[in-house]
């Protein structure tokens, strides 16, 4: 799989026009209302482009009235939302794929509903050393893709204006680079706002199916724990993280039958196993984050949006240590308004948080230059 090298967004909510590098561990901290979640959401929408659901997901946000840049703009500027990502081969800068997609409203007499978002442009560019090649180029209804033999294939009329070519061209043998970009983006995991109410899936047993990776809603948490205990047969990291957060307590993972479950034994009640339905919201929230960050197989990219929600302050340092540990196995992106969490991550990793700010209504990152890099990078070099 490929790692994220850069992200760019223009015209989306408070993201007027921004491009910035992404590190193995990226921490973005800032006050409420600065647009941290819009940075996070722009990556989710790129995954939607890979899944073929981008225009539907934009419509679900309220359509262009809600998602388009609301700040000052010229009346002559087209109403467009542009999102993109540069993916890089692991351990090398010689192999890059840059994907960009641009959406807008239906044109007069166009094929679509009046307020429906549509794909206006789409590109995938391959780059290695000093040479580059356009693998996918689309402008409105027309476009082409370069196949494995180097031949240019027209997109044809089978792809609707509301569909991405990235999500539609499924022939992995004919379009291997396109397939690699799409499959990488579909493997990303976004974790935000886990349900912990009485009816939440986290509080119920999950099917006993080998689960190397946590689902985005955490619904297979018990199976993730059982996979570590009985398939990998190694819960050392999980046990250590749990003891770090809850000294003297013990996580119990029974051998699954048709269903997998787990429980907790607290030091005050050594003979009583508390089931997930009995655990506090904070305890359950920490456990699902442990499932996300310590699972058997981590996805190529993990994004966490305000994971400190509902956690006691004493749990922030154990959470920071799990995040830093996970970043040694995969790429981790975190947005938070918790200064203590950001500081704890910085102490354990040496990675300084990036501060998200508002600049005349526009979301920006402190120290980011218009060239798309950070000022202190020169000093480090």
TrEMBL record:
Gene3D superfamilies cross-referenced by the UniProt entry: P-loop containing nucleotide triphosphate hydrolases (3.40.50.300)
One record GO biological process: double-strand break repair
Top-level taxonomic group: Bacteria
MF annotations from Gene Ontology: ATP binding; ATP hydrolysis activity
Span of domain ATPase AAA-type core: 26-340
Pfam families named among the record's database cross-references: AAA_21
Name of protein: Putative ATPase
Organism per entry: Microvirga flocculans
